[in-house]
Amino acid sequence: MERGISIGSTCTAVLLAYTSGFVDTLSFIALFGLFAAHITGNFVLIATSLAEMHHGLWMKLLAVPVFIAAAVATRLFIIRRERNGGDATKHVLIAQAILLAAFMAAALISAPLTRGDQPLALLTGLLAAAAMAIQNAASRTFFSVLPPTTVMTGNLMQIIVDTVDLAQGHEPLDAKRARLAKLVPMLLAFIAGTLCGTIGYTIVGFASLVVPIAAVGALAGFTRSSPQQVHA
User: How many folded domains does the chain comprise?
Assistant: First the structure.
């Protein structure tokens, strides 16, 4: 049984990239510099925190194993569904939406967050990391035909390369145009997510997380079984 999102691959990638940009930016601002989606970025921040003893060190340290555990659990669930002839897409997206909602609830309960080593603050950050681990696992499994939706450096470089090639008329032009038509909207969605995460948190705080929760929930609602995979 193949998987598909009835709204199409580009819209799927756009919503996931927007979610990643939103959650990563909000978590960085509100949770003492925690990258919830771009988890390897925390290694640099951990080293900085060790040197300067910033708040949030324990949150960043614990986020890495929690991220790994959530990714492993997601992959195991996908494997089990596949072996039973099932489709894990809807379940995985619902799980991400639930964890994002739990992240928001924990944050609202524990606010205001004054220290990153407070138990509720730690729980809040780890729920964010777990939610985004699910999206990362999905991106490497049943969404693997889509460009990465949580880290944009590679996508930006591909946009630069393809744009230069098109300007120089370097073949194959049609393939490069088609790739740009998918990568550019996704990069813009990620940027929009970062801006909305900043503005949303500034205006209404953690309650603004209803936006990415709704985005992931909408994707789950559009999930369907299909004889075709999502095409890049």
Answer: 1
